[in-house]
Amino acid sequence: MLRTSFKSFFLLANLALAPAVFAAGDSYVPGAGRGADTLTPDQVSIVGISSKPTNDSGVFIGAGASLGQGRTTEGSSAGVAFLGHVEPGYQVSTGSWSRLEFGLDLFSGAVNYRLPDDRPVGGKVSYPGLYGVLAKAGYGYSLGENLFGVLKFGVGPVSAGLSIVTAAAGTAKADNVSGLAWQLGWEAVAPMGRSFDFTFGISWMQMQFDVGKLQENGVSFNFNRSMIVNIPAIDLGLRLRL
After folding, report:
1. Which residues 6+ apart lie within 8 Å of 40 measured at CB?
2. Which domain holds residue 117?
3. Could you report the per-residue pLDDT of 151-174, keeping only the tens digit for each?
């Protein structure tokens, strides 16, 4: 009879607690309780929270500078090259560990080098008012944690003035020369919080200008040649993810 009484007690207790158990089950949230701040990968996919938010698809705006050398393929002495950049773009997440990037690199700056004085037109060469735009595409891959490496290629038009200070203290110049530029580069993208990235890397840009006529001491003469400028550089910048 005592055993029958215990069975009856437990049956009544279960019936009394059942509504409370069902009510608690309806309000259950994955990860609640101990360790609630840490979500498992399965819970992340359930609640829709990105496991690597710095790699999410979205718009970005970058700004930076390149410092390097100005060189040519004609046996010149290297000079200084400095370029400033503004780069709006869009990154496309292709997984937790990779992404694609597309953008426009609007740049301007100054570059110079020196051609041998024994050339028909030799001396210090500079390109005042240099500016251009590159259409860029890149592939990014994880370097660990939230750090990404991005390999980029860009191509586009470029324009500048041309000035050659000759050994005879004369200046041959053209007000405007135009051409084509391309760039190959690699950069590391390091997040600095939820919205900003610090970028650093290396690049190689080549610009080819088609030069028709030059003017020296008020006299124009036919030059009719291409001027090729190579710029190996170190790149630094900041990026805002929108």
Report:
1. 30, 31
2. 52-241
3. 999 999 999 999 988 776 678 889
